[in-house]
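In response to the reviewer comment on reproducibility (Comment 2.3), we provide here a single inverse folding case reported in full, input and output, so that an independent group could reproduce the run without further information from us. The structure tokens appear first.
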């Protein structure tokens, strides 16, 4: 790794963040998708408030997973098409570390935006107000995990025709632990139990992802570039 690799990755992160802000419609698309699904659930299962309250943790996390799948497919695609990935691969900087700049920028724009909007969506599903802080904390960790897993899947499928379908097949089994931990944490907080064990598991999952994802993403991108 070159001595200036961290500074270079920091510049890439700022660049991707600025590009994402300019394409603000992509951020709002995921929020609109979330809003549409959350609005349609009461129509499908009935307007009973108790039923919505019981199902709200599971509903929220399933929609969060689907929202992450819908945006992860665009990771690395623009850089792959314009040749930027090939330039990064021969730049002397770690490719996985450079790719993490885009993954983290994607998480800031999509994941943290969802965290900010979560209280409104939670109230729409009649979630217990006491569970909303746990929901927001679990979403911070959970969306980070989903972005890292999405980055790995996108790296493996970026050069594949119909990669979006393959990405879904790769990601869904890997995201099951995040779905279980997040739903369990919010569900226990809603009934007055201590959700800290589930939050700790999500934190451990996120920490492991931050350590291993750059290696996996770098290897996946090199495989895609060699095809």
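Designed residues, in position order:
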């Amino acid at each position: 790794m070159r001595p200036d690799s961290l500074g270079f990755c920091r510049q890439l992160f700022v660049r991707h963040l600025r590009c994402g802000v300019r394409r603000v419609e992509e951020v709002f698309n995921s929020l609109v998708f979330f809003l549409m699904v959350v609005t349609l659930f009461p129509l499908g299962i009935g307007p009973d408030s108790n039923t919505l309250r019981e199902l709200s943790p599971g509903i929220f996390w399933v929609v969060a997973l689907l929202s992450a799948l819908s945006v992860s497919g665009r990771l690395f695609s623009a850089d792959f098409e314009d040749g930027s990935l090939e330039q990064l691969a021969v730049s002397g900087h770690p490719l996985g570390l450079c790719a993490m700049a885009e993954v983290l920028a994607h998480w800031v724009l999509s994941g943290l935006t969802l965290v900010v909007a979560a209280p409104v969506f939670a109230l729409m599903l009649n979630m217990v107000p006491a569970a909303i802080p746990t929901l927001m904390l679990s979403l911070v960790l959970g969306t980070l995990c989903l972005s890292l897993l999405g980055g790995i899947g996108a790296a493996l499928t970026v050069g594949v025709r119909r990669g979006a379908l393959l990405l879904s097949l790769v990601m869904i089994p890997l995201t099951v632990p995040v779905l279980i931990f997040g739903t369990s944490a919010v569900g226990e907080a809603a009934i007055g139990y201590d959700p800290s064990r589930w939050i700790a598991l999500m934190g451990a999952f996120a920490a492991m992802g931050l350590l291993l994802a750059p290696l996996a993403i770098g290897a996946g991108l090199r495989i895609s570039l060699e095809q």
